[in-house]
Design a protein that fits this description.
The protein is α/β, with parallel strands linked by helices and 294 residues long. The chain has two domains: 213 residues, 2-enoyl-CoA Hydratase, Chain A, domain 1; 74 residues, no CATH class. 48% of the residues lie in helices and 14% in strands. Strand 1, helix 2 and strand 2 form a beta-alpha-beta unit. Helix 2 packs parallel to helix 3.
Length: 294
């Protein structure tokens, strides 16, 4: 009986949500069209792990991943917004994906459009990497940020496999092809190679933060050992500018752009994506159930 009720309830919820989003977006898109060339601030939300591949299998509607955020930044340039606010709530991600987003931020800044970051619960590692490329950073006193650094890890299960009688057989084209594999220990040569990769990407991270935050290298390095900071500490060390929530960041972006009065805040124009993004952010059990219907 419960399953039968659920089979009616979930489609009804889906239909109701879809209609609500449609009317909201339809009215919103009309306002955006009417305000073409007017004072607009673009809002982009970067939530979760930052990578090219979206987490939790959400890629079927293109909800997550650096590709989507790059597209949204490009859309804001096309819309000729006066300023952009990046709302970041992320523990980090891959260096390549973060660099793709930063590249698009730099294009916006070259167009003379101010970009302000608003940090939520956490904006660490890759989340801070992106934030540091913005003109200003707002955050909460309790926001966790920083974690400037790069890491790579692997596990050596060879001793356990010996004890239980498992002997892997590997055929490879080169001696480094299985570097970091779980069934053997890293060689000293391999450790040096990986350390060199880590050091190289770490220098890229430092360069972005030093340039964006105008912090000299000699002052930055002691604070870039992977530690996290609270919002108040981040301001003390020069990693952020002001205490304030997302609305404060929007007002600051408006002021930097010379907007007088209340700005028009616009987000992604894609109704389909906005709806499924709402589904994605529902409690996991409900969102999983909705996805199974499709």
């Amino acid at each position: 009986m419960k399953e039968k009720i659920l089979s009616y309830l979930l489609p009804a919820l889906l239909l109701f949500s879809s209609v609500a989003v449609f009317f909201k977006e339809t009215s919103g898109s009309k306002s955006v069209a009417q305000l073409a060339g007017k004072d607009k601030v673009g809002l982009i939300k970067i939530y979760g792990i930052i990578s090219v591949e979206p987490p939790r299998g959400a890629s079927f509607v293109g909800l997550r991943g650096s590709d989507k955020w790059v597209q949204q930044l490009k859309f804001m340039r096309k819309e000729r917004v006066k300023a952009v606010v990046l709302r970041i709530n992320s523990p980090g991600g891959t260096i390549g994906a973060c660099q793709e987003v930063v590249e698009e931020i730099e294009k916006i800044k070259k167009d003379g459009i101010p970009v302000v970051a608003s940090l939520g619960d956490v904006a660490a590692s890759g989340g801070y990497y992106i934030a540091s490329a913005c003109d200003k950073i707002f955050l909460n006193p309790g926001t966790l940020t920083g974690s400037i650094g790069v890491m790579m890890g692997s596990s050596d299960w060879s001793e356990l496999m010996d004890k239980i009688g498992i002997k892997p057989e590997v055929i490879k084209s080169g001696k480094y092809k299985d570097m970091g594999a779980y069934y053997r220990e890293l060689s000293e040569e391999e450790r040096k190679m990986i350390q060199s990769m880590i050091d190289g990407t770490f220098e890229q991270f430092l360069s972005i933060v030093s340039k964006g935050r105008k912090i000299p290298d000699e002052k930055l390095r002691p604070l870039a050992q992977g530690q996290v900071f609270t919002g108040e500490q981040a301001i003390k060390y020069g990693f952020a500018d002001k205490i304030g929530n997302m609305n404060s960041a929007i007002q600051e972006a408006s002021s930097m752009a010379g907007i007088v009065g209340e700005p028009r805040v616009i987000e992604s124009p894609d109704i389909f994506e906005r709806f499924f993004s709402a589904v994605y952010d529902m409690p996991e059990t409900l969102s999983d159930a909705l996805r199974k219907i499709w």
